[in-house]
Design brief:
Length: 104
């Protein structure tokens, strides 16, 4: 704790001004360079937008996969979907067809 010196009041006043200036400087630096600065918050907002976009893409993928799973359910078995999956995954061909595989 800082006490005022009765013999030299100017020294105490100068000390208080220096301490006030240092505290003010600390807060000003934190305002521009700290965790809650405008630059940091802007970067966090951009990161949040990217994560929201990724979340929406993942939700769309989940819905597509759920639709495919539902289509392959035994109650809703669609022969055309089953055949297209066999052709794609297992390289299935009909007897009168020729399959050409191109390298990636």
């Amino acid at each position: 704790m800082i006490f005022l010196n009765k013999r030299d009041p100017y020294k105490s006043t100068i000390m208080m001004l220096i301490i006030s200036a240092l505290v003010s400087l600390y807060f000003i630096v934190q305002m521009f360079l700290g965790d809650y600065s405008a630059q940091t918050i802007s970067g966090k907002k951009q990161e949040l937008k990217g994560l929201i976009n990724q979340y929406e893409r993942n939700q769309a993928d989940i819905m597509m996969h759920e639709k495919q799973i539902k289509a392959l359910d035994t109650d809703n078995l669609d022969v055309d979907i089953l055949e297209s999956q066999m052709r794609e995954k297992m390289l299935f061909t009909k007897p009168n067809e020729i399959m050409l595989i191109a390298p990636d």
